[in-house]
Amino acid sequence: EGVEAQRRPEVERLESDILDFQQEAFDAADDFLSGATPMGQSGVAVRNSIETVRDKVNDVLDAKYASIEKDIQGNPVFDTTSLIKFANKNQKKIERDILPSLAVEDRAIIQDLLGLGLKAEKSAGKKVSYDQLRRAITNVNGQMKKAKLSAQSGASTPELGFLKQLKSELKGIREQLIDPDTPWGKGIIERNPNILDDLAQIEKRYANFNDNFTRDIAGKLIRKLKGSGKRYEVGDEAVVKQAIMNDNPTGRRTLRAILNTPEGLEGLEAIRSAIKGMYRQRMQTATGDTKLLTEAQHDSFMNQYGDAMKEWLDPKDFKRFENAASASK
Fold first, then answer.
1. 18 — alpha (psi -120 to 50), left (phi > 0) or beta?
2. Would you say 76 and 130 are in contact if contact means Cβ atoms under 8 Å apart?
């Protein structure tokens, strides 16, 4: 009893130190987890932010296009005879090599483009409007960008050379815009002699816009089920994990750039809050109480989400998380 009495203060100090460490760990965890939100709530916020940024960028590009197109007057129309000849000349290659190599949605885009030149009388071209021609060139730019990315990853892209030829054909048709022998050409040249170059630049930006918001991760998250009207392909609960847990680093960088804008910050914060929420969920017991994870449990979480946390969390928040983890060990 004498020895125990002598050691009691030491034991009590040790118990006090342990309690202090536990409290420190809880405080650090609470600091890190402040603002944690459920996955579904975060998913809605991320999707809303993507759509808000998309609408903003679209408005900006439309305004730039409008500032250039004010010089296009006289309702120009374009003869597509050259496109018909191009399609007929390459018909076997298109059907054998090009269309089978494309995804279903891309195949439809190319078929629509070639459809600009379709007419029963194959010897004469169809007249198309400037809006139709503009959409066609923008779509080809988008297809070319996608094919180039595939080529960079080592994929076979037989469509790339064909798309370059198709774009050249369409740009050739567009040159009718400044044909001085047409009712509109002379006036357009006088108003803006550089209009073809100006249009080419804005079309590239439109192609990037379409790629970012229709094909990449952001596009997938806001894509609606066909025929549903309001339902999305990716449910609210799955949005955040689809955004951060994938094998598309380029798409993630694009998504972060989209969200790291004044219109998108709410979505970026929602992803960060959802990550915190996932960690909080791991800390909850069956009775609903919260307790610190063991080192093994923490390491398990890090093995699954560590890279995503480094990629998406604010550096200060990640530091708080590391502090909480260290305090719990």
1. alpha
2. yes
Helix, strand, coil % (nearest 5) of the chain?
75, 5, 25
What pLDDT score does 51 carry?
92
Q: At a CB cut-off of 8 Å and minimum separation 6, what does 226 contact? A: none
Residue 18's pLDDT is 44
Strand, helix or coil at 224?
strand
Instruction: Give the separation between CA 186 and CA 189, rounded to whole angstroms.
Output: 5
Cα–Cα distance measured from residue 229 to residue 283, given in angstroms and rounded to the nearest whole number: 39
Task: Tokens 């093995």: give the residue.
Answer: 303
Q: Taking Cα atoms as reference points, which of 215, 323, 235, 259 lies closest to residue 57?
A: 259
- Residues 170-228 have pLDDT tens digits of 888 888 888 888 888 888 888 889 988 988 888 888 888 888 887 789 999 998 887 66
228 phi, psi to nearest 5 deg: -90, -25
- Spatial contact of 264 and 53, defined as CB atoms under 8 Å apart: yes
The Cα 325–Cα 182 span in angstroms is 73
Cα–Cα distance, 72 to 134 (Å, whole number): 12
List all residues 6 or more positions away from 167 whose beta carbon is below 8 Å from its beta carbon.
137, 140, 141, 144
The set of residues, in sequence order, having a beta carbon less than 8 Å from that of 207 and lying 6+ positions away, is 138, 141, 142, 144, 145
DSSP, res 229 = S
How many residues comprise the chain?
329
Rounded (10°) angle between helices 159-174 and 195-210? 140
pLDDT of residue 117: 55
Give the residue carrying structure tokens 């892209």. Answer: 157
The residue type found at 141 is N
- Structure token pair of residue 44: 């809605």
List the one residue out of 264, 310, 311 whose CA is nearest residue 321.
310
3-state secondary structure of 288: coil
Closest CA to 171 of 141, 137, 146: 137
